[in-house]
Amino acid sequence: xxxxxxxxxxxxxxxxxxxxxxxxxxxxxxxxxxxxxxxxxxxxxxxxxxxxxxxxxxxxxxxxxxxxxxxxxxxxxxxxxxxxxxxxxxxxxxxxxxxxxxxxxxxxxxxxxxxxxxxxxxxxxxxxxxxxxxxxxxxxxxxxxxxxxxxxxxxxxxxxxxxxxxxxxxxxxxxxxxxxxxxxx
Length: 185
Prior knowledge:
Elements: E1 3-9, E2 14-18, E3 23-28, E4 48-53, E5 58-64, E6 70-74, E7 81-86, E8 90-95, H1 104-116, E9 121-125, H2 133-148, E10 152-155, H3 164-171, E11 176-179
Parallel strand pairs: 3-5, 8-9, 8-11, 9-10
Antiparallel strand pairs: 1-2, 1-4, 2-3, 4-5, 6-7
């Protein structure tokens, strides 16, 4: 039975990259659960799965490998949770001081969530090309604060391509969840 990695989830269908490198559209056979949680979707990006092929491009997922970790959030559906990703090596939280502003409360809640699931988080401060000297000083203080309590931080400019190579090196050969408010990245 072939196995592979879920690289995209679109509801009831999953794109699986087989260990041989082929992309197979798969659906689920039976039910998968995380003990103690009612999930809106039982599988996610990052899950390692076994599947049976129906033809050259379609298959049925029949088994999931044990997860090393996963991250969930409360779903808008009463009493359910959404599985965001599995088998994550690290999380990059994209944050900005302006356009849009990321609140410190949001950052702290996010860090608590990743700590709960034992997933390392890197704070990526973006849009440094847009900041005044005062805003850059504020960002430096925030970065020092989070670094002093054990978090890694990086400052970048996606548009200006500043420190992007450093970011790429940190992502190399790792499954990385990138998250943040709309407009920060």
